[in-house]
């Protein structure tokens, strides 16, 4: 870490690094509680809140309408127990109230995701920028922090700033990891979470856009991971809630496997193998084509691909039917690579939760240093859970910084 010259540093009451969701929430809450303080928020990019802008396909999925903390923490593959301390203090109802009290009307979609009624992330951005400006947070854009030193001093391109309280809310990019490692934090290496699976299997070819409401999928990792829910077939393989949840829970294992794995899909989770066999035996008397209609209502084109052969039920051999049972109940698909999920993306890894007081977000190793947002080793499944972490940790950090002597 570069040695800085504190004598040259401009003195502030608090410095916050990272003009994303967590940094803004922290700065606003801190300045609200300490209007007389000089609070500066430093953002490397020319425009703040870049991820808020693109989030949720431009609509910003602000949080999730999951109001019971025990249920909420289940949506975070890592750190379930520890996160109770965070979300019992600032949960989705607090997030929703925060925005609504500041004039952003929100709506809850049937699957629980919360969006601004405007369906535009700009409403969230305008609210955050307006609030920061009204309270007098000094937001400095195009201002990259190059180094930090305990005490706290931050070095910028041409100058340095110092303050007794420093927040890092620099997101998932690991550029600040070495600084924190040098301060003694045992940084958990970053790896992507929330991605699709690239699969090239003839049975899924030419089916982009086909969705099945409920499948059971097992990722053959050690340990194996199981999820149930909707599956979406894309040009490149698999997406939809089941795939994204497997990618989140399996993020680290899949990273280690270089995204080479097998996934087993049960296309009919509510029908037993025996029932499938019995139905096939009944249908064997029919001259209709097997590929015609799925007895259980699977999408027609998918059923045709799974059947693979063009023959009538009456001509179906035992061997063929056994293979079809296996395909329906235990369809093994090879994952070849990690695909891109455009709606949401998050990094697993960061500052271990055990090294942060989750009531105040202050580092347990470095007094006066606060850490919030995706920089922490917190990542959620898709649906607004990642912003919920950013709002909650930002808010609590801002509140605690205001009380820090
Ligand atoms: C495409 C996409 C869509 C998403 N959609 C959703 C969604 O709908 N709902 C949801 O819950 N989550 C969503 N997420 C995840 C969510 O955006 C993040 O979890 C969240 O933005 C994290 O907030 P943060 O403030 O911790 O970090 P960030 O938003 O990443 O902000 C960190 C900021 O720090 C700045 N910075 C970094 N280093 C420095 C430095 N040295 N000096 C100064 N500034 C620095 C960066 O420029 C950045 O602006 C999405 C993510 C992506 C990529």
The helix content, as a percent range, equals 25-40%
Shape: elongated
How much of the residues is beta strand, in percent? 15-25%
CATH architecture level-2 label of the largest domain: 3-Layer(bba) Sandwich
What does this protein look like?
The chain is of the alpha+beta class. It has 2 domains: 6-192 and 343-403, FAD/NAD(P)-binding domain, CATH 3.50.50; 195-340, no CATH class. It is built from 13 helices and 23 strands. It has helices at 21-33, 50-58, 69-72, 83-87, 92-101, 121-135, 177-182, 241-249, 251-256, 273-283, 300-307, 318-329, 385-403, and strands at 10-11, 14-17, 39-42, 63-64, 106-108, 113-116, 138-140, 147-149, 153-155, 160-162, 165-168, 188-193, 197-198, 211-219, 225-233, 237-239, 261-266, 331-335, 337-338, 346-350, 356-357, 362-363, 369-371. The strands form 6 sheets. It has a 7-stranded antiparallel beta sheet with strand order 18-17-14-15-16-13-19. A 5-stranded parallel beta sheet has the order 7-3-2-11-23, with helices on one face. A 4-stranded mixed beta sheet has the order 1-10-9-8, with no helix packed on it. A hairpin with a 5-residue loop joins strand 14 (211-219) and strand 15 (225-233). Helix 1 (21-33) packs parallel to helix 6, helix 1 packs parallel to helix 13 (385-403) and helix 2 (50-58) runs antiparallel to helix 6 (121-135). It is elongated, with a radius of gyration of 25 Å. The mean pLDDT is 96. The site of flavin-adenine dinucleotide (FAD) has 36 residues, from helix 1, helix 2 and helix 13. Flavin-adenine dinucleotide is lined by residues 17-23, 42-45, 50-51, 54-56, 60-61, 144-145, 169-171, 173, 175, 343-346, 373-374, 384-387, 390.
